[in-house]
Write a structure and sequence with these properties.
Layout: E1 2-7, H1 12-22, E2 28-35, H2 39-49, E3 53-56, H3 59-72, E4 77-80, H4 81-90, E5 97-100, H5 108-116, E6 120-123, H6 126-142, E7 147-149, H7 152-160, H8 163-167, E8 179-186, H9 204-207, H10 217-225, H11 227-239, E9 247-251, E10 257-263, E11 268-272, H12 278-286, H13 317-328, H14 330-348, H15 354-367, H16 376-397
Parallel strand pairs: 1-2, 1-5, 2-3, 3-4, 5-6, 6-7, 8-9
Antiparallel strand pairs: 8-10, 10-11
Helix pairs in contact: 2-3, 4-5, 5-6, 6-11, 6-14, 10-14, 11-13, 13-14, 13-15, 14-15, 14-16, 15-16
Bound molecules: nicotinamide-adenine-dinucleotide (NAD) and magnesium ion.
The site of nicotinamide-adenine-dinucleotide has 29 residues, from helix 1, strand 2, helix 6 and helix 10.
Length: 399
């Protein structure tokens, strides 16, 4: 049995992963799980899977859970804080796998801890790469850790690349593999057709109602602004060692194709499937094999007709900001990510309007000029400075 640790176990990706694991109880042992503060979500996981240890970042929630477990005579060890989450990240050991699905920058320390311990990392937490892509892959190479993408577009690109590229992720030679372009597709979110002047009136409830995917509130808002595609652009750059000019963003509202790779001879490889995260999760967990993920087969006779279009940067200024930050480097992408997290949080709690998300991020990127950002300390310092600047920018706009 292969050991697996699931970080972000109570979230949307966490639940989809547990569903895949339920179908393969003889192949995987859930040895550890971590979440933020969802005591009851974690309690249900412990009762069902009996992991050796769990961590709740929030200390009060961790205490609450350990009291309930003691009352039920369950021996699972309950840890807390970032250190506890990092202990869960390394629990599976070198032959195991850690699936990183904590949302936002909070997921970086534990994902890096797994990499530094030579563990295979199935990575959903794209923010970790946006902040630390260079460092992340240098550490993965130094410690012989394999990184497998879980984000659906990156899983699609991975599957469309030859095995030499899959085996050298982070350092692959796209040119040698004959690749001419990576086509990163995105649905365009719920406001693809909304008149531009109506964007100012968009509410958090509308923004989190994604037309195709069912996801957590932060990534759903990022999908509406297409900051998600911007973060994925940066993620793709690091995962596939791709220069910015080789990555093209395409809007494809039906989300039938999950991304594509164009080759120099004119061939284009596309990965097609239902919009269900259990497919990329299973791809990472069972790699290089394939296994049942509980996903219905794709029915071509019922597939919608497919459209493709270039993104309009007036509608999606966040995408443009992310692509500019990508060109500038890790200091700018860390600042972009931090400013976006603060701005999305302020939007979801009703403090700023929808267009303010892009303007807060833009203000922070033009004021913050971090120098060299490579080590974890430098990254965290750039992250803190950008958050501070973003909070001020939010205050200036607060309704
Ligand atoms: P979510 O909000 O549904 O779940 C987030 C999880 O992280 C929860 O379990 C929460 O308790 C945990 N968490 C939050 N802060 C924490 C902390 N400080 N320490 C430990 N755990 C903490 O989010 P999601 O939609 O599942 O997304 C998770 C990650 O996967 C994000 O980075 C997202 O971009 C990425 N992703 C999600 C999808 C999707 O379909 N949901 C697709 C691709 C990539
Ligand atoms: Mg994605």
């Amino acid at each position: 049995m292969r050991k697996i640790s699931l970080l972000g176990a109570t979230g949307s990706i966490g639940r989809s992963t547990l569903d895949v694991l339920r179908r393969h109880k003889d192949e995987f042992e859930l040895c550890a799980a971590a979440c933020g503060s969802d005591t009851h979500g974690m309690l249900a996981i412990v009762r069902e899977f009996r992991p050796k240890m769990v961590a709740l970042y929030n200390q009060k929630s961790a205490l609450e859970l350990s009291k309930i477990l003691a009352g039920e005579g369950i021996k699972t060890e309950v840890l807390s804080s970032e250190q506890g989450v990092c202990e869960c990240a390394i629990a599976p050991g070198k032959d195991g796998i850690t699936l990183c699905a904590i949302v936002g920058s909070a997921g970086l320390p534990s994902a890096l801890a797994a990499v530094k311990n030579g563990i295979t990392v199935a990575l959903a937490n794209k923010e970790a790469l946006v902040m630390s892509g260079r460092l992340f892959f240098d550490e993965a190479r130094a410690h012989n850790s394999r990184v497998l993408p879980v984000d659906s577009e990156h899983s699609a690109i991975f599957q469309c690349l030859p095995s030499e590229c899959q085996d050298t992720i982070g350092f692959c030679d796209l040119n040698k593999a004959g690749v001419s372009q990576i086509l990163l597709t995105g649905s365009g979110g719920p406001f693809l057709k909304l008149p531009l002047e109506d964007l100012a009136k968009v509410t958090p409830k509308q923004a989190v109602s994604h037309p195709v995917w069912s996801m957590g509130p932060k990534i759903s808002t990022d999908s509406a602004t297409m900051m998600n595609k911007g973060l994925e652009f940066i993620e793709a750059r690091y995962l596939f060692n791709a220069p910015d000019h080789m990555i093209k963003v395409l809007i494809h509202p039906q989300s039938v194709i999950h991304s594509m790779v164009s080759y120099k001879d004119g061939a284009v490889m596309a990965q097609i499937g239902r919009p269900d995260m259990r497919t990329p999760i299973a791809r990472a967990l069972f790699y290089p094999d394939r296994a049942d993920a509980g996903v219905e087969p794709f029915d071509f006779t019922r597939a919608p007709s497919m459209q493709f279009m270039d993104p309009d940067f007036k509608r999606y200024p966040c995408l443009k900001l992310a692509m500019q930050a990508s060109l500038e480097g890790q200091g700018a992408t860390t600042a972009l990510n931090a400013a976006n997290e603060v701005a999305v949080d302020a939007f979801l709690s009703g403090r700023i309007g929808y267009p303010d998300i892009a303007s807060v991020v833009s203000d922070v990127l033009s004021s913050e000029r971090p120098g060299t950002v490579y080590t974890l300390d430098e990254i965290m310092q750039a992250d803190r400075a950008a958050r501070e600047a973003a909070r001020k920018a939010v205050e200036e706009r607060a309704c």
